[in-house]
Amino acid sequence: MMVHVKSLLVAILLNTFSIGIASASDLFVYPTKGQNQQQQQKDESECYVWAKNNTGFDPMATPRATTPPPSTSEPTSSAGRGMVRGAVGGAIIGEIASDDAGKGAAIGAVAGGMFGGMRRQRQKEQQQQQRQQWEQDQAAQYSQKRNSYNRAYAACLEGRGYTVK
What we know:
The protein is mainly alpha-helical. 69% of the residues lie in helices and 4% in strands. It has one domain (2-164). It has helices at residues 2-17, 37-55, 79-98, 101-159; strands spanning 29-31, 162-164. The longest helix has 59 residues, at 101-159. The two termini are 39 Å apart.
């Protein structure tokens, strides 16, 4: 279950924001004080650690859900249950109204089945909406943390004499 949620979250984030998880930063860094490649790599590495420690976000880590996904349990209503309830109710009403419990039961079963099926569909739709909202919330939280990390990373590098875009 956890592996499925983890892979789902990664796919959502990649599709939603086109984020490269393997890269520590999607920023361009240009040395403005003549820093060589070795110095730039050292500075980028140190700024990565600094930004990660100050924001609590690691762009190299696999994204994790901050809350568990909403329940995907089977809906509690069903057409079969509705038919049984409708048949019992229809039999009672049919017996009282026309002395024909069988006819009342048949009508009640059909109506109960329809209402039970409609209730089940409504529950499925609500679960799907809750799942979509959860996915959007997780993606938004990831994006916010990523943006905070990028600002910290850029500030560190700019303080060391780099232009960051």
